[in-house]
Amino acid sequence: MPTFYPSIPPDLRDWALRQSVFFVASAPLRGRHINLSPKGLPDSSFAILGPNEAAYVDATGSGSETISHVRENGRLTVMFCSFDPTPRILRFFSTAEVIEWDEPRFASELARMGGKRVLGARAVIRLDVFKVQRSCGYGVPLLALTPDPEPRPYLKDRETMGHWASKKVEGNVLHEYQRLNNSASLDGLPGLRSALKDAGRSVWAARLGNWASRHRDEIEMVKSVVLIVLSTTMSSRPVRIAGASGSASDRRHAIVEFARNYPQDPVDVIIADFMSEANMSTGAARRIESDRQVAAGLEPTAPGYEPAFLLALQPALHDLARYGIKLAVNAGNTDTEGLYKAVTKMVQAKKLDLKVAWVSGDEVLSTVKQALSSGKSTFKNVYTGETLRDWSFEPIYAQCYLGGLGVAAALAQGADIVLCGRVSDASPVIGAAYWFHGWTRDDLDQLANAFVAGHLIECSNYVCGGNFTGFKTLEHLGPAGWSNIGYPIAEISPDGRVIITMQSYATGGAVTVDTCSSQLLYEIQGPWYFNSDVTAILTDIHFEQLGTNRVALHGVRSAPPPPTTKVGVTARGGFQAEASWFLVGLDIDAKARMLEAQLRRLLAPYAANYTALKFSTLGSAPDDPRSQDAATVTVRVVVQARTPDAIAPNNFLRHITDNIMQGYPGATFHLDLRQGFPKPVYEYYVSLLPQADVQHRVHLPWKNQTLDVPPPPVTREYPARQPSQAVTTAPGTRDVDFGATVRGPLGWIVHARSGDKGPDANCGFWVRHSDEYLWLRSLLSTARMKELLGEEYNSNPQLQIERFELPNLRGVHFLFRNLLDRGVGATTTVDFLGKNVAEFLRARWVDLPVKFLNRGKL
């Protein structure tokens, strides 16, 4: 019986390359001639480039059937028959593309294949393998490669095509042979483009003529012309884009790993995200200080860009150049030109031929101030509604979010490395796919899918099992379990289809429907997902598990982008200091109340100069604790003020420590007192800026050229608030009987994921089975969520809740407005990124249907 695989099994790769001959089969859509060609010595001409990718070097021959058929319809099957004593047949069912000897990609494809060479090579045939079949082959005679035992005089002086080509190529005899024999198939389909050109024929005319003669019906002919245009202007294979960093705090090894492992796991583009609202504010402060130092004739002490990127890039440069891998990152932060200079210096020191471009336009403080002073815009905070004029802080920096077309333009001009500042997290993926497939702004469906793909991989490990509520399943999965979670790859086809996968070499983690759902849900704020280039509509989104670590994206719809883009305004927000006390064992609440009362009395003379003073009890002591550590709880004391003097040690920290002698039983403060000294905090104000006011520009220094990226020509206005459903809209759902229940944590059977957006927190919940979704959506109404939030809701009068459902994900999503104080740069909460909101809510107890619980706990 045959066995089918979704990709090339690792144990069959070496076997295939050991065989002496392989065969390729192709056919035209309507012609009479089906072609079967033998190809020699796979070890010298055939390369397996990845789990679903292979290629072979095609030598000049007496016909061009394979090339013509692939050009027409993209279909190709490769078969290996066993030359070993054990019979076996292996077939690769594939779509394919032809890369001719005179195309710029030909040399890089040969390099990807490990430098394989065939004399008289006319093309590389690259395969996207979508199915592999292995069968026993017992009905096939034993094949063997042996010397000819009989002398045959008539073969004595016979040359192979390769030997002949090696002698004749200098005199252009090989090209003449190709012109005579390789310009068309037996059915008249156009063959080698170079042969057609040598024959003085138009490639377009040949294709149109051949197709028109076959399709007498006008509609069919129009269809064929469309196919011709698509096959000529677009690559037939997906672009493979790797996500190598999710923040400036990510591990540093992924870029070099992707580059170094290219031969076994090739990628076309590596993207890396180094930006967040947190380092946008700190980067702004570094930029202002750097400008001040330069103006004073001093050397800047800290760059505005992210130096962590240089640590990740340096060891990868040689392999990026060797394999022709493109790189697009947003590590420029607030000084992209400075990062360009640093990267260029590094490239030149290594004597590498890498073209470095950079993108500007995100720095918009002058634009914001001009619009404000002229009355063109009042700017309203998208979270609070407060106008910028009423904001009680002085802006020092403003940065808007750019789309991906600057990245696309740089790549189209030959850039190898594209450096950006505040492009949106997903924009490098949009730009890479736009460039690779030759899309236009009108290809909104493709752009929307690329946008979602970008969101899925821009947080690196998250889509591979990082920050995932099913993490316990990963402990012993793969070579590294949960000790070394791998990095993701997005495969984006010309028509926008997306498959999420991950590194194929020895890492841990997994790409599953649940890991993809987790990453999707944590950052969206409703069914409309906005980018400067497109709006993705997520109402019908869902995922499909295609195989191990391969998940397909479905159901994304598109709409034009909004006319505006998000702009973040940074201001100096004052200063913060904090201290911690430890409480152990019994009476934790009473001990915390005693400590707070004593400290508030000691700090009262200085409190008028504070802007915030907050006490938080972190954790609880269990009954009959197993250890002293388990019984230990922390009280965190946080103070903020406009000036550092207001919270200097004499006005805060000294009184915190002086309280110890009158404290609760076992009173102990944390000995590391460094956080008790004032440190700056930054306020972050988020508004909208018309895209038409943004000067999005690409800098191409090796050409001494700049390119302007115009705003989208077609946009759509959207309501300020997204659609919200306070309760499930499904008729009768609330009346379903789910059987017997027991009390237990929601997280025993419900996945969840949360994250921050300014002062807001997004939180998505989803379940494993369809019948569980009926229960989840009826349970998690807005009213019930207020109950589950408990003190978090009751103590925060500004907290608002918005809810919407994602039926195809079996999910319910909540947006908690103003849950996180004033955002990551100024919040007084421990959960400054909002990532633990979901974990708190999963720990809340509800009535769980027994039949769902019997399926196993998460």
Automatic annotation (TrEMBL):
Acyclic terpene utilisation N-terminal domain span: 239-700
Pfam families xref list: AtuA, AtuA_ferredoxin, PNPOx_N
Residues covered by the AtuA-like ferredoxin-fold domain: 746-845
Pyridoxamine 5'-phosphate oxidase N-terminal domain residues: 13-134
SUPFAM superfamilies in the record: FMN-binding split barrel (SSF50475)
Full protein name: Uncharacterized protein
Source organism: Aspergillus terreus (strain NIH 2624 / FGSC A1156)
Lineage start: Eukaryota, Fungi, Dikarya, Ascomycota, Pezizomycotina
